[in-house]
Design brief:
Elements (H helix, E strand, L loop, with lengths): L3 H15 L4 E6 L2 H4 L3 H8 L4 E7 L2 E6 L4 E5 L4 E4 L8 E7 L3 E6 L5 E5 L4 H4 L10 H9 L5 H6 L9 H11 L12 H20 L40 E5 L2 E5 L7
Antiparallel strand pairs: 1-6, 2-3, 3-4, 4-8, 5-7, 6-7, 9-10
Helix pairs in contact: 1-8, 5-8, 7-8
């Protein structure tokens, strides 16, 4: 599933192409993705201008002039394009006064939603990882008695972090994924806060990680996967100490770590 860096990459690409554009037509081809009446949804969009495009967690949000939101979650295989022609997996098409927006989704696990207000499940997400100050990060972590990997995956704790970047941040911080969050010393919490910001910033700069089907809005793959130090490197030598990388399950998610460099 695309995580914060991948979604941010897409949002930055499409924002200047969509902001200020008027929606002339809207077509929806999949009830699984829409989960709403397509004609009614189209009626809410036609004639409206897109005021702003931004990311909130793993969601891309289009704010409409005069109120209203288009919330897009890419799911496992969702893609957004502003160029090209609709194909067999195109689930939504917005025709604009200049250009278009296509939402493709092979497995139909994404979500394209139009609402008068920002949906509560998006509005109540945790703080933005790239903006949260250390004091708030530490205070929130101190209240969590769960495994630190599970805490990082919790979107109510911080929004946008997924499996890839939780593993990579924990490795850089030298923290075992099974460590209890509330028991971490302040110096280790500070290292984790720094690692989260660093790994996300670096991943955005490289267009995200293309470990499966992810491409950006121009169809380009990301390059951060070549920088992964533990994610999906089970059995390979640690880049720091040479110990084979191990894999365990945390909240049913494959979790990769170095048993020597990362301490509980």
């Amino acid at each position: 599933m695309p995580e914060l860096p991948e979604v941010e990459t897409i949002a930055r690409l499409i924002a200047p192409r969509l902001a200020g554009r008027k929606i002339l037509a809207a077509e929806f081809r999949c009830g699984f993705v829409m989960r709403a009446d397509p004609d009614r949804t189209a009626g809410m969009l036609i004639g409206r201008k897109i005021a702003r495009v931004h990311r909130r967690g793993k969601f891309i949000v289009l704010e409409l002039e005069g109120g209203g939101f288009v919330s897009i979650h890419l799911g496992m295989t969702g893609r957004l394009f502003t160029k090209g022609d609709p194909g067999p997996y195109t689930r939504a098409i917005l025709t604009l006064d200049r250009g278009m927006l296509l939402f493709d989704d092979t497995r139909r696990l994404g979500r394209f939603e139009v609402t008068p207000e920002l949906p509560a499940r998006i509005a109540r997400l945790g703080p933005e990882p790239l903006e949260v100050e250390f004091a708030e990060f530490a205070a929130r972590l101190a209240k969590r008695k769960a495994r630190v990997k599970a805490v990082l995956l919790n979107q109510m704790f911080l929004r946008g972090i997924g499996n890839i970047y939780a593993d990579e941040a924990l490795f850089r911080a030298g923290i075992h994924p099974l460590a209890i969050a509330s028991r971490l010393r302040k110096d280790r919490v500070r290292r984790l806060h720094k690692a989260v910001v660093q790994v996300l910033t670096e991943a955005i700069a490289k267009g995200g990680s293309s470990v499966s089907s992810y491409v950006d809005a121009d169809g380009r793959r990301g390059f951060f996967q070549v920088e992964h130090r533990v994610y999906r490197r089970t059995g390979e030598p640690c880049v720091t100490c040479g110990t084979p990388i191990r894999r365990v399950l945390v909240t049913q998610r494959g979790t990769h770590f170095c048993p020597r460099c990362q301490k509980r």
